[in-house]
Write a structure and sequence with these properties.
By secondary structure, the protein is α+β, with helices and mostly antiparallel strands. The protein contains two helices and six strands, in the order αββββββα. Helices cover 19% and strands 24% of the residues.
Length: 132
């Protein structure tokens, strides 16, 4: 059985704190949550050492899966200024109008009884390592 979003947020904050990261979760007007992972250490090859990762947990999460993610700083680049594949710096976060680098990255499968905020971050980590 899937655990509630509030419990997932609590567990996610505890987990990421062990990595020196701060997690903020803010409820949006739609009922979705903006999840923010600050002080994320990027893999070698990116032009920045640290970043903030942001994604939306939809209102029906975990029954509804997250889709895409954003990274600050805006204009995140790798290898001396190359633009990552499937990104856009002009696609603000919905309901927030916050500028960040948008990564068009979509899940192939999602099981709300197994997958969590943590497992979605693992998908993001796979996209970011190696830089491409």
């Amino acid at each position: 059985m899937a655990i509630t979003i509030d419990e997932q947020i609590r567990l996610f904050k505890e987990e990421r704190a062990r990595f020196g990261q701060r997690v903020d979760a803010r409820r949006l007007p739609s009922g979705a949550f903006l999840i923010e992972v600050a002080d994320y250490e990027l893999p070698k090859g990116w032009d920045s050492e640290r970043a903030t990762i942001l994604f939306i947990a939809p209102p029906a999460f975990p029954a509804a899966q997250p889709d895409c993610f954003w990274v600050e700083p805006v204009a995140l680049r790798f290898g001396g200024g190359r633009t990552p594949q499937n990104t856009n710096d002009q696609n603000p976060i919905p309901e927030v109008a916050r500028a960040a680098t948008w990564f068009s990255w979509h899940l192939q499968s999602w099981d709300p009884n197994r997958h969590t905020l943590s497992s979605y971050l693992k998908v993001i980590e796979q996209r970011l390592d190696p830089p491409r």
